[in-house]
Amino acid sequence: MVTIDQVRQLALSLPETEEVEHWGKPSFRVRNKIFAVIQLDGVSLVIKTTKDDLLAYTTMAPEIYRIPDSFSNLAFMIVRMDRVDSVEFRDLLMLAWSLVSPKKVVKAYYAAIQGRK
Of 31, 90, 111, 116, which has the most beta carbons under 10 Å away? Predict the structure, then answer.
């Protein structure tokens, strides 16, 4: 299980991430590009992904991942925070961040965390 506080903490720890209200919901963005939006139900998060991952996750675990009705042509999926594995979620949120971030920022971030190991 992942909490809203954990989502916020991880998202805001990523370079250049800002929290901005989006239709009354907290969204996380890099240079105004959205990579995650906490939903009003408090247990769902809309998250950016790749088209391949969207298909894979929503097919393998539809009880955790689904395609938002109004986003059928976009590479976003809904993640049930109360059902997702926390390590898998961390990886998905970091992927979402990397999809909207400048390549130089992503490369520098991953180089820095590799250097800490």
Answer: 90
Q: What is the pLDDT of residues 61-76, one digit of tens each?
A: 999 999 988 877 889 9
Q: Work out the angle at residue 87's Cα, subtended by the Cα atoms of residues 44 and 85, and round it to the nearest 5 degrees.
A: 50
Percent of the chain with pLDDT over 90: 89
Tell if the pTM clears 0.90, that is, is over it.
Answer: yes
Please, what's the b/e burial string for 58-84 (b: 16 or more CB within 10 A of its CB; e: otherwise)?
Answer: beebeebbbbeeeeeeebbbbbbbeeb
How far CA 82 is from CA of 1, 42, 63, 93, in Å, comes to 5, 9, 11, 15
Cα separation, 48 vs 115, in Å, equals 27
